[in-house]
Structure formats: structure tokens, C-alpha cells
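Below is the record:
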Amino acid sequence: MSDEERRQPPEEASEMGVDVADGAVETGPEPTSDRDALQEELGNLQQEISRFRELYLRKLADFDNYRKRQEREMTEFRRFANAELLRECLPVLDNLERALAAPGGGNGGLREGVELVVRQFRDVLGRHGLTEVDPIDQPFDPARHEAISRNEDARVTEPTVVQVLQKGYLLGERLLRPALVIVAVPAGSASPGGAGESFEGTNG
């Protein structure tokens, strides 16, 4: 021990952090309050990050659903944009088919030409989503058929299409034109108040 340390009073040496008993240096209390505050702030930031991440994922899912809905709507719009034009083409197709069905047409070149035109016309309409409704011998469906008249028939157990006067057409899943049909109903159902009354002249 130096002369200066010998001359220093014990109280003064203790205040300087020197243990007068064994010479060990004393340390002050750890700054736990600052560490706890930092931990709390870090926890709050992590919660904010999780909240913003969840919000981002939700908005991303909403946008994806919106994009898919827009694509479906655009597809539907493009499909039905020409609906009126296709509807006006149907009478032309009807007349071509009637020409082929007319008796005495023979098998000459004119008939073959008309058959070719009909096939090409059907192909064009089909590529635009048009499908035929030809319900012969099928149960009457008021959503797709328009009954022009009905006849009693003991051979049927439910209203059944027995003759198609004009084919119907669907554009995708949408009815573009109902089929004009004659319906056979079970015997007795065509009496006043019978089951047949409910669909006479129905336009699907």
C-alpha cells in the first residue's frame, strides 16, 4: 500500500468504491428498468408487425378475389356481348334447316351446298358458345320450353314433349331462345283446373 492510501481515511476510501476489508471493488445496481422498457417496446413492435402482416395478407386476398371476379365478369361480358346478333342469326339457321327437311330436295349439288352451309353455320355458332335445345321425347321443362299446344296421351305419365316446332338455343348456361313444342299430358290432366293448365303457353 502506498503512502497516499495509508493517509486516506477509511470513510473516504469506502466512498470511492474500495472495500477497506479486502480491497474488492463494489459495483452499483444493474439497470434493469431500462432493459425491461426495451423488452416491452420490442414486444409492442412485434405485435404491430404481426398486425400489419395480417392486414396485408387480408388485403392481398381481397384483391385476388376482386381480380378473379373481374376476370369472370369480363369473360361473361365477352360471351354475351354478341347475344343479340346470335339471336338474329337463328331464323336464318331455321330456314336453312327447313330447306333441308322439305320433301323433293333430292341429293343434288344444291342440297349438298346447303348442308355444307348449315354445318359451317352451326360450327361458327358453337364456337361462340351456342348450344341447341332439341327436347323431343323429353319431360316438359318450362324454363327452356314454350308449349304451343297440348294433347292427352295415356302412354305418358308426365307432361312430355312430343313435337318440336322450333329448336331452342342456349348461350352458355343462359337461355337465348326457348324451344317451341307440343306437349303430351297424361289422360285427364287437360281438364279445367288440371295439371296441363299450368304450362299452356309458358315462355321459359
